[in-house]
Amino acid sequence: MKKLKPGSFKNTFCVFQEIDPTSITISKFDYTSQSGSSYFYSETGIYRYSNHWGRLANSKWRLEPLEQPVISKYKLGFAHFNDFYPDNATDELYYLEVNFASKTVNYQHKNNPNFDQKAILRTGFETTKKIKQIRNLFALISWAKYFDYEDIDVLRYQIIQKLIYTNQTLEDIKRDLL
Question: Alpha-carbon distance 116 to 124, whole Å?
Fold first, then answer.
């Protein structure tokens, strides 16, 4: 296998899948960063062992946890080489995914094969702003006091759907629903 250079994956977005560290044996990592993250390059992808995920210097790498998370400060994640997508601050690369049952929101890259081509694409900055708004809609109820709705979950769903599938501002969406 060709030796990868540190920094080969700068300016990328990737979702790593958490792996139980006891399920794999890595005798020696290929690279350890200054921040303490260790990397092992397999034939098909990258294993990363780290205590920090999310925004990393010039990249956005997220870790999807196991169903039964391993209780440890350090987590082991794996991503296939083709799971890395380009990232920059100016292009509209991201869309939102919401899980209403768990009341969570995440962003995905437009090159993700699961993208339905319906959600609005946004820059990283715009996406972060929408994520904060959706998290507030899930966490708070004070915003709903001005609406005449018996079921706040229905109202919440309507607002969030519009945040995902339109370019309307949150203020305009609320005004339209009053």
Answer: 19
